[in-house]
Amino acid sequence: MTDVTDAARATTLEPAPTPPARRRRRTGRGWPATPYLFVAAAVALLLVFTYVPVVNMFWYSLTDWDGLSKTKDFVGLDNYVEVFTRKDIFAVFFVSLYYFVASFVQIALALYFATLLTFSTRFRNFFKGVIFFPYLINGVAIGLIFLFFFQPGGTLDSVLHAFHVGHAPYPLWLGDPDIANVSLAGVSVWRYLGLNFVLFLGAMQSISGELYEAAELDGATRWHEFRYIIAPSIRPIIGLSVILAIAGSLSVFEIPFIMTQGANGTTTFVIKTVKLAFTFNKFGLASAMAVVLLLIVLVVTAIQRWVFPDEKGGRP
Amino acid sequence: MRTAAARTGKYVSLVVACLFALVPIAVIVTSSLKTDAEFASTGPLTMPRSWTNFGNYVTAFTDGHMLRGFANTAIILVISLAGTILIGTTAAYAIDRFDFRGKKVVLGLFLVATLVPGVTTQVATFKVVDTLGLFDTRWSAVVLFMGTDIISLYIFIQFMRSIPKDLDEAATIDGANHFTIYRKVILPLLKPAIATVVIVKGIAIYNEFYIPFLYMPSDRLGVISTSLFRFKGPFGAHWEVICAGVVIVLVPTLVLFLALQRYIYNGFTTGAVK
Prior knowledge:
Structural class of chain B: mainly alpha
Mean pLDDT of chain B: 90
CATH superfamily of the largest domain in chain B: MetI-like
Structural class of chain A: mainly alpha
Distance between the termini of chain B: 37 Å
CATH topology of the largest domain in chain B: MetI-like fold
CATH class of chain A: Mainly Alpha
Shape of chain B: globular
Organism (chain A): Cellulomonas alba
Radius of gyration of chain B: 24 Å
Order of helices and strands of chain A: HHHHHHHHHHHHHH
Number of strands of chain B: 0
CATH superfamily of chain A: MetI-like
Strand content of chain A: under 5%
Low-confidence stretches of chain A: 1-28, 311-316
Distance between the termini of chain A: 26 Å
Number of domains of chain B: 2
Oligomer: heterodimer
Largest interface: A-B, 104 and 104 residues
Transmembrane segments (chain A): 33-60, 89-114, 126-150, 179-201, 237-259, 283-308
Number of helices of chain A: 14
Number of strands of chain A: 0
Strand content of chain B: under 5%
Keywords (chain A): Cell membrane, Membrane, Transmembrane, Transmembrane helix, Transport
CATH class of the largest domain in chain B: Mainly Alpha
Subcellular location (chain A): Cell membrane
Pfam family, one (chain A): BPD_transp_1
Number of helices of chain B: 14
Low-confidence stretches of chain B: none
């Protein structure tokens, strides 16, 4: 669940302020406009495709614009009231909960497998590759793979049948509103587990092997090693993953859109926004939803910085 | 203290994980080799009668327009990557090597922008793209891939810090101007960072669905993702053809992964953590 990786990544990406000693003297030589020329294209694109939309979005959210007509009427906070009072809109927050819970399963599994592979293992690279590879696969391909997997008489039903688990008729994995979100959240775990796993593994491998040797001499079990050596060392990256989980579970789009188009109670926040804007021409309302999502993500990021302040900027 | 049971448990759980990862893909591969009638009469776990029945692949390529999808993806990929590298490296050069009025503001703008998840602003971004007359052209995807990529810029800035400033100064003494220094000194030394950006961003562009789906609805502009997505309609009753389409999209990713494993792991770790 890393649809909004940028937000959380930024928290560790902020360049440390240039130390005064390193600060370059004002360049006397050369044309004074030079640095502006070098940075102009990047800033122009940033303004046009990030800041203009954000500002516009705040403005649209206060109007009843349909996205097409020349005029828009100012309606104050009506759209926001609608977001929080209309049942079909507010319900999409509950859909996020499935993905939110799933991302903790994902983090736990990633920690488990990363810990296993930190210690010497036969076919280590093979296992690492297989667990990571799904993360690289095209989202549409994943959607289709799992449509096939979950369809009646599909892969899942056949495997369950082969192992004599349950009996036909199997539930409609994507058709039954009680199960559909669980199935889709499962696909999400399948897709994103590999990234968490590789990040954790990378962090774990930077821990000195001597620590484990010393712990083992003292009779530590694997659980002790995990609890007292691994977990504290990779705390920042776990924190980052949890933040990504929260932000990511609110901005789920691809998998449910490709697989169910939001049918059977699987409409997510972003699917709802896109539908309101482009199918129902409710640009004002859709903008208000987008603003709400943006504010939630900003608050979550702020909390992360407050809880894990040491992560900011310089990393080893 | 490592008992045999623990060892067995470890390998069993790894094998189970591999099965979970591979079985859904494997059945797609076997199904893609079945004929229409064979697919209808056999279950997903049955092996295909012939391992060389590539008829579905031909259908996917011809009727599914996969070739056109690859061509569009390739065009967008090359232009966006070239643009991202040019814009990102020049901006990183200015930010890391110069002091200029407004530098703090520029840095602040980039930093705050990383907090804005792209999906949230699409509703308004759509209007901007439309106003610029880029809707339903390949340029919509190109400018969005170039314009909303701040991670690459940070990778370049991070890397440029490790390039000693003495090199710039030596070149200045030799009479080089800033453009020459950028082109002859900085750019060649940034190669590892450029490789990271090409891998991470290349994979992201190849896999992107949302942007082409929203901004390039015409059939003739179908990229890999949207072409495959359109399989759902006409081939809805022909899963064996859809499976072939999925495999066609998967193969380049698999080949790239096997060839560049180490760089890919490094790239994603760098992109996410550094």
